Amino acid sequence: MTDEPGLERPYTFAEPIPTERLVLRPMRLADADAVHAYQSREDVCRYLLFEPRDRARVAERVTEYVAHDRLERTGDYVQIAVERRSDGRLLGDVYFQLKSVPNRTGEIGWTFHPDHHGQGYASEAARAVLGLAFRRLGLHRVVAELDPRNDASIRLCRRLGLREEAHFVRDLWFRGEWADTGVYAILDEEFARAGEAAPADPD
């Protein structure tokens, strides 16, 4: 237990969030096969903090994702399924965590199946989650931490308006070697100026 206060307006992720081409919705147990299709790939996991997962491990993780649906206190997170509206296909997911409630800071991340890269889906989904963070949760700052070798994620950060704030050199023991960490961030006023309704660019 903690004495730290929660958000003034706690959020339970129960209702889908529609965008122009997508539906952002809570993860379901039935999504395990679709999630396994990308979490099992070496090219997808190359810059993530876990190795490719087998079907059983993915099912365990999806069960955990389903149980996490409330954002109120530091450490709370949601793993948001990103579904294409035209055919209901799950394309990937967006991770969002309350990194610090006192400092009104969140953290965002994303993982998409490579078959759906280059069509702007990650931009569209992440922009909607940033809108949730700033407009609904009233956060001040959202960060993304990534491997600086991950050029695709860096390009996505820049399209979303996130600035590079830090580059930590060899700070993380990662798959048998020291690796760097890049930190990108955007403030609420910066997001408002950029406009969350900006057109989605190819990812």
TrEMBL record:
It comes from the Bacteria. The lineage of its organism: Bacteria, Bacillati, Actinomycetota, Actinomycetes, Micrococcales. One of its GO terms (molecular function) is acyltransferase activity, transferring groups other than amino-acyl groups. InterPro entries: Acyl_CoA_acyltransferase (IPR016181), GNAT_dom (IPR000182), N-acetyltransferase (IPR051531). This is GNAT family N-acetyltransferase. Residues 22-190 form the N-acetyltransferase domain.
